[in-house]
Design brief:
This protein is an all-beta fold. Helices cover 0% and strands 46% of the residues. Strand 5 and strand 6 form a beta hairpin.
Length: 128
């Protein structure tokens, strides 16, 4: 299994920045897709950003241009750099891994795959 532990959450004012980290206990190569998701109270969990083992990234439209996902294979750490934070970014942020090494030609993109492994989440609060 892939074990994930998030850190780096906190409170920040609008326009501020935070960097979230996700430490993984297994090799980065154990998952083709890694991603960040968030869930605000009373709202559906949504994908924020994903990264393939090749480095290809995808972002939700709401964070495009503001957030950057990256992965350090040397330390098996996933990052989410969040700039220009807005109150609507307030949520619990989760890192996730699909736990799949390879996909076939039917690969739908990381935003559409089944992420089977999840961290416990870290709270991000953005005040106006």
């Amino acid at each position: 299994q892939v074990l994930l532990v998030e850190s780096g959450g906190g409170s920040v004012q609008s326009g501020g920045s935070l960097t979230l980290s996700c430490a993984t206990s297994g090799p980065a190569s154990s998952s083709y897709c890694m991603g960040w998701f968030r869930q605000a109270p009373g709202k559906e969990r949504e994908g924020v950003a994903t990264i393939e083992h090749t480095g290809t990234t995808s972002y939700a439209d709401s964070v495009k241009g503001r957030f950057t996902i990256s992965q350090d294979s040397a330390t098996n750490t996933l990052y989410l750099r969040m700039n220009s934070l807005e109150p609507d970014d307030t949520a619990i942020y989760y890192c996730a891994a699909d736990g799949t090494l390879h996909y076939g030609l039917d690969f739908p993109g990381c935003l559409s795959v089944d992420f089977g492994f999840w961290g416990q989440g870290t709270q991000v609060t953005v005040s106006s």
